[in-house]
C-alpha cells in the first residue's frame, strides 16, 4: 500500500480572488477624486491637441 503524504495542499478558492489586507503595495495612493480630476485634465489636453493647428 502506498504511503500517504502528510503535506496538506491549500484549499482551492473555486476561482475566487483572495485579498489580504495586511499586504501593502508599493504603488501610489490616490483618492477617487484625484483620479477623476486627472482624467478630466487628460481629456481636455487631448481635445486641445486634436483641434490645434
Low-confidence regions: none
Q: What structural class results from the helix and strand content? A: mainly alpha
| Radius of gyration over all CA atoms, rounded | 24 Å
Summarize the amount of helix as a percent range: 25-40%
Question: In whole angstroms, how far apart are the ends?
Answer: 82 Å
* Arithmetic mean pLDDT: 79
Strand % is under 5%
- How many domain regions? 1
Give a quick account of the main beta sheet: strands, pairing sense, barrel closure. Answer: none
What pattern of helices and strands is seen along the backbone? H
| Total number of strands | 0
Number of helices: 1
CA-based shape: elongated
Subcellular location: Cell membrane
Family: Belongs to the SEC61-beta family.
Protein name: Preprotein translocase subunit SecG
GO biological process, one term: protein transport
Defining key terms:
single chain; mainly alpha; translocation; elongated; 53 residues
Summarize the structure.
This protein has one helix spanning 32-51. By secondary structure, the protein is an all-alpha fold.
Explain the overall architecture:
This protein has 53 residues and is an all-alpha fold. The chain has one domain (11-52). Helices cover 38% and strands 0% of the residues. It has one helix and no strands. The protein has one helix at 32-51. The mean pLDDT is 79. Belongs to the SEC61-beta family. Its main location: membrane. Keywords: Cell membrane, Membrane, Protein transport, Translocation, Transmembrane, Transmembrane helix, Transport. Component of the protein translocase complex. Heterotrimer consisting of alpha (SecY), beta (SecG) and gamma (SecE) subunits. Can form oligomers of the heterotrimer.
